[in-house]
Amino acid sequence: MLIFEKAGRILPEQDKTNIPLEFNVPSGIEKLIIDYEYSPKLLEDEVKATKLLQKSIEKYLEPEYKAEPKVFMPVKNLITLSLDENRKYRGAAHRQANRQHHEISESFASVGFEKGEITSGEWTLVLNVHCCACEVSYHVRITGEEKI
Questions:
Q1: For residues 36 and 138, what is the distance between their CA atoms, to the nearest angstrom?
Q2: I need a surface site. Which of 3, 76, 87, 110 has the fewest CB within 10 A?
């Protein structure tokens, strides 16, 4: 059963933010399945990547470090997931992969999430924007398996 689906864009101005996506889980669901992807994973524009890295080097590293931007290439977008169930933390998938599949049920949960009963009510999937170096497209699809 389809519970929630959303496609959207994340812009560099949203770097270092969290984007909450609220959805309702109906009663009678025994397993949640979350499929998530975003692209691009890499900032392909080398000139933009160099400028971003130079700003970061100046901001975070001492001048005597003398870091060169090329040492830190490629620049990767990183947008991870966390999940709240009825305003209670249920876990997170802070992974590098830009395509992910997670399952949560009473007897099993993908690494990072808590297994347990799937309760009905308001849930929130949060996109944790660790690095958004260029415009990123994302797609989230949440399905549920009903109790038999």
A1: 7
A2: 87
Residues written for the chain: 148
Amino acid letter, residue 115: K
- The alpha carbon of residue 47 and the mean position of all alpha carbons in its chain are separated, in whole angstroms, by 26
Torsion-angle region of residue 72: left (phi > 0), alpha (psi -120 to 50) or beta?
alpha
Stated pTM of the model: 0.92
pLDDT tens track for 13-41:
999 999 999 999 999 999 999 999 999 99
Residues with Cβ within 8 Å of 15's Cβ and at least 6 positions away in sequence, in order, are: 129, 131, 132, 133
> What gap in Å lies between CA 63 and CA 42, rounded to an integer?
27
Q: Would you say residue 64 has pLDDT above 90?
A: no
Whether 121 contacts 26, CB under 8 Å? no
